[in-house]
Each structure stands twice: as C-alpha cells, then as structure tokens.
Design goal:
By secondary structure, this protein is α/β, with parallel strands linked by helices. Helix content is 39%, strand content 21%.
C-alpha cells in the first residue's frame, strides 16, 4: 500500500511548524501559498485526520499533526544522510570503518583520533572492537575488521599491508603486598611456580591460540583483557609479566612492584597495524596516515 505521507508532504509540514504560517512556509519553499494549502488538505483527506487546528489564528498542529512532524523530521534527516552517504560512497568514502585494537594498547589516543576524524566526516560510522593476541589478526583475516592496531607477529598471508608502530617492554610485576615481593631477588622459577600466573586469553576463533610467560605446572587465572590482568595483579591474585607502558601509574604509586628473576630474558614485543591491500577506502587511508603521527602515544 502506498502511503500518502510523502517526503514532500513532510517537508511542507516541517516548514509550516517552524515558520508558524502557511505563507511563510511557502516563501521558504519557493511556492505559492495555495500549493502549500493543497498539499496539507490533500494529506488530511487521504489520512482522514486533521493535522492543523483551524480555530486558531496561527497555524497550530493537532496532536496527530505534531506526531507526524516529529517522526517525519527523523525520516527527513535519515533521507538526507542516506543521500550524502551515497554520494560519498561513490567518491570512495566508506559508510563504516571497523577498527580492531589489541588489548595491549592504550585506547585513549585512538579515541581522540576518532573524535578528530568525525568532526570532518560525521556521516561515517566507526566501529571499535578489542581483541587479544591472535584474535587481532583473526579479526582481519576473517573480514570482521578493516584495520587492526597492535598486532604482533607476521601477517598470515600476503593480502595485508603492515606498518610497524613500535616496540613495548614487559616487566615481571606483582602487588606490593604479594608474598613474592618479600623474596630475595633474583627469584627462581621454582618459587614463582607456587603462585598462579595471570593470563590473558587469546581471543582468536579461527587462528591458533597463543600464550606466553607460562611455567610448566604453574596454575593460572585466565582473564579476558590486559586491563583485567592489571586489575588482578593489583589485587594480588597472581603474578606475571605486564607491559610497562600500561602500569606506569601503578608503579609510581607503589601499588605494583617489579621483580628480578633468576632465569628471564628481556621480554619485548613488536607491534604493527595492518589492513587489506585491496581496501582503497578513504577513511581507512586517513586513519593509516594519522595513526603513524600518534603511534608513540599508543605505547
């Protein structure tokens, strides 16, 4: 069934409500007043309801008329946005950009970048997700993300462009009141194994899961994100390595302390951002360029 409520009728009602008269609405829409009256009368006739209270001197909407105008404005706005999106899509701009951030990174600098982007390109939707270890690559490989930030290791195939964003250092850290904090240093593995290791679960679904820093026979407490791991360390629930850039405040306040281990190589990890080489979207290109300008703030 064709609705008598057309976009043109909604524009007429919107103009009348804002201008508070048929004549003023006609001027705004560059029409004669009789054309405005005809549109309103025809819509009222087709709907079988009164949209304006004719007993008043000024054009005042009835309850039904108000409802149609309020909902109609949402339709008009959505139509304008759709028109704009169609034009921008034809010009190479995506309607949505999906960004996957590895849990090890600081999110705030990327949020600041998103805010900057949306001031210029407000019609583009941004979807941010968080993954861990191989889950970051998995998100790109499976087509669930357009851009991944903070990926570790080599790309799984030649379809992806990769740009290094920096290297992070890890330290072995425990709560200030954890029993290990009172042990003579360097601490042997056999002593460390007496306490649970806090482990962040690899969020990969399709790619092989990974884990690091575990000792044979050591109990573990598995958490979903790096922030949850930091929280668990601060509560003294367990031990393990933490990225030093994420725990500066806790170290400065004394909430966490670092320990020297008897058998421990330097723990470092190189991070990258990656995207599909075939993706020529302008929003993606904007973020690739600008993340390189702020990459030191992520670490």
């Amino acid at each position: 069934m064709n609705s008598p409520i057309t976009l043109d009728a909604l524009k007429v009602l919107d103009a009348i409500e804002r201008k508070k008269s048929f004549a003023a609405a006609a001027d705004e829409l560059f029409r004669v007043p009789s054309a405005i009256s005809y549109t309103v009368n025809k819509l009222e006739e087709d709907l079988g309801v009164a949209l304006f209270d004719r007993s008043k001197r000024r054009a005042e909407l009835t309850t039904v008329g108000n409802m149609i105008v309020e909902q109609g404005r949402l339709i008009l706005k959505a139509t304008d946005e759709l028109t704009h999106m169609a034009k921008q899509s034809a010009d190479g701009w995506e309607s949505e950009l999906r960004i996957c951030i590895d849990s090890i990174l600081l999110f705030k600098p990327i949020y600041t970048l998103i805010e900057q982007f949306l001031k210029t390109y407000p019609w583009i939707n941004i979807r941010v997700s968080e993954e861990v270890f191989g889950g970051t690559w998995d998100s790109l490989v499976s087509g669930n993300s357009d851009l991944i930030i903070g990926a570790t290791g080599d790309p799984y195939n030649n379809d992806f462009a990769v740009h290094p964003i920096g290297e992070i250092d890890f330290v072995f850290a425990v709560a200030h009141d954890h029993p290990l904090a009172n042990e003579p240093q360097p601490i042997a593995n056999k002593i460390i194994k007496q306490y649970p290791s806090i482990v962040v679960a690899d969020s990969s679904i399709n790619l092989p899961a990974r884990s690091v820093g575990l000792l044979d026979g050591q109990a573990r407490i598995t958490v979903p994100t790096v922030q949850k791991k930091i929280d668990a360390h601060c509560l003294g629930l367990g031990v393990g390595f933490l990225p030093i850039h994420r725990i500066k405040e806790q170290l400065e306040s004394g909430q966490l302390v670092t320990l020297e281990l008897a058998k421990c190589e330097n723990r470092q990890s190189e991070l990258s951002m990656a995207w599909n080489k075939d993706n020529q979207g302008k929003a993606l290109a904007w973020f690739v360029e600008n993340i390189q300008k702020i990459q030191e703030k992520l670490l």
